[in-house]
Amino acid sequence: MPDLMKNKYYHVDVLHELALRIKAVYPTFEAAAFIADIIDDIWDARKLKERMRRVTIYLGRYLPADYGRALAIMDQVIVRYPIGFHQNACACFPDYVEVYGQDVCNWDLSMAALERYTPYATAEFAVRPFIIHHEERMMRQMSIWAGHEDAFVRRLASEGCRPQLPWGQALPSFKKDPSPVLGILEQLKTDPSVHVRKSVANNLNDISKTHPDLVVTIAREWYGKHPYTDWIVKHGCRSLLKKGDRGALDIFGLSAVDCVDIIDFSLGASAVSIGESLPFSVCIEAKRAARLRLEYSIDYVKAGGKKSRKIFFISEISLKAGQRKRYDKTHSFADLSTRSHYPGTHSIALIIGGTQQDVLHFEVLAAK
């Protein structure tokens, strides 16, 4: 299994580098004591965000108590790191703003710092408490950021207000009423940056989980107007398409399952060991001309014995009446940093137009 992210981004060498960079611009910084306090007896057991927050807390203890002065030091440090969306080693910088900068008297300092830091380590998590406690004011700021010249900042405007951001604090008010988010998405729906467009799509997908009809309405209004927006709409409707939402399927001209016969759906083996791949085949025949969306699901056995379903895309294809299409696929059961596999009886199901069809069972065995 690849190294866990927490060990990649928060280990002694990374902390040592951070401490030295701080000391270079703030000579009285107690680098050795800073690191010694962070690496406690349960450091190895701490999760990624727990490690990040611990670094943040001790930054607050070892940097000047004056918030503005501390930010000035951090400003000099962060510019020595490379720019990038997922520089988790720098995530403590926007996290510092979240932890120490929420007082209203520090608002302008905090907003400016988040804008500066997000190109180095995305501030999408740090903005969420500001939204929760000062929704109208923060959403005005997000609207300003949506017009920023820097794509990293524009992405923050969308990603930061996602109602159900993975790993982030949920935004209950936007889950209930996402209307404050829609103006941000409208501003960014033709953004030239693919990173921004992906964020807009992910935001729409979040909204679709609680307000599917609203997202279908938006998708109808946006689709066919601009190539960038068409991609956003398709990606933003992915959960609806997986569920077979008829409104979403109709937007993209996707037919219902009754247009097709399943000629073959079979496994290449009855068992697979963890670390190996399972072959399977699908063959369909169109009863009449149709455009079809094909997916498959795996019901994974989890550590406690319960099952969790994950859906995977196969293809979208247009067929003439009587035309057949065959797919020979493999599915990997190698452990990932985001998924561990466990022995037990698993299931694979064929899904056409969001509707589950045949289900096959197989065994996952312990790694050889």
From TrEMBL:
<dbReference type="InterPro" id="IPR016024">
    <property type="entry name" value="ARM-type_fold"/>
</dbReference>
<dbReference type="Pfam" id="PF08713">
    <property type="entry name" value="DNA_alkylation"/>
</dbReference>
<protein>
    <submittedName>
        <fullName>DNA alkylation repair protein</fullName>
    </submittedName>
</protein>
<dbReference type="InterPro" id="IPR014825">
    <property type="entry name" value="DNA_alkylation"/>
</dbReference>
